[in-house]
Write a structure and sequence with these properties.
This is Carbohydrate-binding protein. Pfam families: SBP_bac_8. There is one protein chain. The protein has 2 domains: 212 residues, D-Maltodextrin-Binding Protein, domain 2; 203 residues, 3-Layer(aba) Sandwich (D-Maltodextrin-Binding Protein, domain 2). It is built from 16 helices and 15 strands. Helix 8 packs across helix 9, helix 8 packs across helix 15 and helix 9 packs across helix 15. Helix 2 links the parallel strand 1 and strand 2. The protein has 441 residues and is α/β, with parallel strands linked by helices. Strands 8, 9, 10, 11, 12, 14 and 15 form a 7-stranded mixed beta sheet that branches. Strands 1, 2, 3, 4, 7 and 13 form a 6-stranded mixed beta sheet that branches. It has a two-stranded antiparallel ribbon with strand order 5-6.
Length: 441
């Protein structure tokens, strides 16, 4: 959500000045005559290190441009500063946004559109992306983002424990699972071979964790949610109640701990005390560092429709009142070059969005990443609305309604009604980026 008062604008402007000074004081190896492209992103930790390596390769591969990154804090601080930059004419040449946040920015003119013909001339077009990832970058008939990846919610499993439980096939994979009962049966077998629980799932105080699993299960029912501005939300109550009820059934103290937060679940699995972890692919390096053999897969299709909750890191063009056309041309080249050379991005766990990378023989040999690459064809993003998306209050509000069901066994039907009421209130409010509703998709 974008809602900036005068104090926030002044504070943000000062922060932007500081960020600009910091970037300007960084050592530069810009070739003589090369244009400097300013690139903002919110990638830190292992993702930040990987992105730095990708940028080094792109910079070294040519002498027409030099990409200078500025890294800002994840979440609200980043998106606030990006909004200020787009509104105030101090925008970078290119930036990273989560795909689910783009819809809240494009209406207010905070982002410029991509020229699909110019992208196509560089080998970036509809044929080089899975359909759901490519389509997510469009609002109406305009393209506002180009995806770097998909990072879905998946299932990781300790192959030693699962082998001891007798549930793995000859290739070290879990057996086909096509119903909630089959999933419970497999988890119960793994529980019998585990030191603590069969399944680690952290959710306490973490609305995003609850939403990721819930929306995976909900969309596996073949259901979608629609949040039309100034309209009534479309939510399948039966699918929502069934999903919450199933989530609660797993937290029985045997299959999974009835009360666990995100870090506790990660620690339980990483120390070899449980057999299965429900998490995002971004935890791949954490699990690899634990040092035990493991595998990964998409969450089994238990309700008939293959679906995996995910978001994507995407490239956007923050609005510039008078863009330098030469630098804009080089920005297109940079994005195309990075996409074509994004194999290393898979080492961070993410699924590169550019199909020639994930369809290569090298990627097929990359384990366990290749085992969940199919998620790119079945991703389900947050329902489009100005208030949804990664790092938004929407996830927190969902968690506030879902946690009493998971923690205390409250009525899931009442929780769904409370969630619907919250969404209805949000839909009655104008998009802060487009308060007069001038822009239409």
């Amino acid at each position: 959500m974008i809602h900036l008062n005068r104090r926030q604008l002044l504070t943000g402007a000062a922060a932007l000045t500081g960020a600009g000074l910091l970037a300007g004081c960084s050592p530069s190896s810009t070739p003589s005559g090369a244009e400097t492209l300013q690139f903002w992103h919110l990638l830190s930790g292992g993702d930040g290190v990987t992105m730095s390596g990708l940028l080094d390769k792109v910079n070294a591969s040519q002498d027409a441009f030099h990409v200078r990154p500025t890294v800002l804090a994840w979440g609200t601080p980043y998106y606030t500063k990006l909004a200020i930059a787009g509104a105030g004419g101090r925008a970078p040449d290119v930036a990273i946004m989560h795909a689910t946040r783009v819809g809240g920015y494009a209406p207010g003119g905070l982002l410029d559109t991509w020229d699909i013909d110019r992208l196509a001339s560089l080998g970036v077009d509809e044929s080089t992306f899975s359909a759901p990832i490519w389509d997510k970058g469009k609002i109406g008939d305009k393209r506002f983002s180009v995806a770097l990846d998909a990072h879905p919610f998946v299932l990781m499993f300790n192959t030693d424990i699962c082998d001891k439980a007798g549930v793995l096939d000859s290739d070290g994979n879990l057996p086909p699972i096509s119903s909630p009962d089959e999933f419970v049966e497999v988890m119960q077998a793994i529980t019998g071979a585990s030191e603590s629980h069969g399944l680690s799932y952290g959710y306490l105080g973490d609305g995003s964790q609850m939403w990721r699993l819930f929306y995976t299960l909900y969309t596996q029912h073949g259901a979608e949610m629609e949040f039309p501005q100034e309209g009534a939300p479309v939510i399948d109550d039966d699918a929502a109640v069934a999903s919450l009820t199933f989530m609660r059934s797993l937290l029985d103290g045997k299959i999974a701990a009835p009360q666990a937060d995100y870090q506790a679940a990660i620690a339980e699995f990483a120390t070899g005390k449980s057999g299965v972890l429900l998490t995002g692919v971004w935890e791949l390096r954490t699990v690899q560092a634990a040092g035990f053999p493991f595998n990964a897969a998409v969450i089994p299709t238990m309700y008939g429709t293959p679906a995996s909750y995910a978001d994507s890191h995407t490239f956007v063009l923050p609005h510039q009142a008078q863009p330098n056309e030469h630098k804009r041309e080089l920005t297109y080249q940079f994005v195309a070059d990075l996409l074509k050379n994004s194999f290393d991005w898979a080492t961070a766990g993410h699924i590169p969005a550019y199909l020639p990378v994930t369809q290569s023989p090298e990627y097929a040999d990359l384990m366990p990443q290749a085992n969940y690459a199919v998620a790119a064809d079945q991703v389900r993003y947050d329902p489009p609305a100005w208030f949804t998306g990664s790092g938004s209050e929407f996830h927190s509000e969902f968690g506030a309604t879902a946690q009493p069901v998971l923690l205390s066994g409250d009525d899931p039907g009442a929780a769904v009604k409370k969630f619907r009421d919250y969404v209805t209130r949000q839909l009655s409010k104008p998009n802060p980026a487009d308060p007069k509703g001038v822009w239409k998709a």
